[in-house]
Design goal:
The chain has 229 residues and is of the alpha/beta class. The chain has helices at residues 15-26, 42-53, 68-80, 93-96, 118-124, 150-156, 179-185, 198-203; strands at residues 2-5, 33-34, 62-66, 83-87, 102-105, 112-115, 137-142, 161-165. It has a six-stranded parallel β-sheet with strand order 2-1-3-4-7-8, with helices on both faces. The chain starts with a strand and ends in a 26-residue tail after the last helix.
């Protein structure tokens, strides 16, 4: 089963969530993909995710988290012992979301979205200082992310599988390039082999593993911005 967790103020309508849902449906495995609407409360969000994941054995569960969803996915993976894919994940959201305390609107609608000050404390309780089993993690980080620092992401997941994209944006508007690779890491055989870039061919796996050398961003063109993570 794949559990997708969207980002701050986002929803299951995000581009990446919809793309993965379409890929899973095309493979006849739509019933193995879940993407819930997460509440604003971090505590309530992870409780909801735990309820959805509890019936699935850890070996058969993969959690994909985008932005703030990546922060949640990291905590959940440590609790459950499952795989996790992090897409431009938030590493220090208590710091980054402090300026966003208050009432605004959801990204994909005009519905009010309130982020309470107490949620900062809830976020702090979910922090993972160091991942325990790096082989369970796959990080995709974009150097063109104007919201979060890709270098912080890389430093936070030492030894994990890394793909650092040269350019792109916070929402990974070029995610179509990586969707099949993400599904393959989750144990889902794609309908076609993942596209291999020239850099992949030169470096072999196309991944950047900290501890065996410095990360080298994939030489891909700049993507257009997409804010709903």
């Amino acid at each position: 089963m794949i559990l997708y967790l969207h980002g701050f103020r986002s929803s299951p309508q995000s581009f990446k969530a919809q793309l993965l849902a379409e890929r899973m449906q095309a493979l006849g495995r739509a019933d193995e993909y879940l993407c819930p609407q997460l509440p604003a409360s971090p505590r309530a969000a992870v409780e909801q995710a735990l309820q959805l994941a509890q019936s699935c054995p850890a070996a058969e569960l993969s959690i994909i988290g985008s932005s703030l969803g990546g922060y949640y996915a990291t905590w959940l993976a440590e609790q459950l012992g499952c795989r996790a894919v992090l897409l431009n994940p938030a590493v220090k959201p208590p710091r980054d979301l402090e300026p966003h305390v208050g009432v605004t609107t959801a990204f994909h609608s005009d519905a009010p979205f309130e982020f309470k000050r107490s949620y900062i404390t809830e976020l702090e309780a979910l922090g993972v200082e160091q991942i325990s089993r790096p082989e369970r993690y796959f990080l995709i980080a974009a150097s063109g992310d104007a919201v979060l620092d890709w270098q912080e992401m890389v430093a936070h997941y030492p030894g994990a599988r890394h793909r650092v994209i040269n350019g792109s944006d916070h929402g990974l508007s070029d995610f179509t390039r990586y969707a099949d690779e993400v599904l393959a890491f989750c144990g889902v055989t794609p309908a076609r082999p993942p596209v291999q870039s020239a850099d992949d061919a030169r470096y072999g796996s196309g991944t950047n593993n900290i501890g065996t050398g410095s990360p080298h961003p994939d030489p891909l063109p700049e993507g257009e911005g997409e804010n709903g993570a």
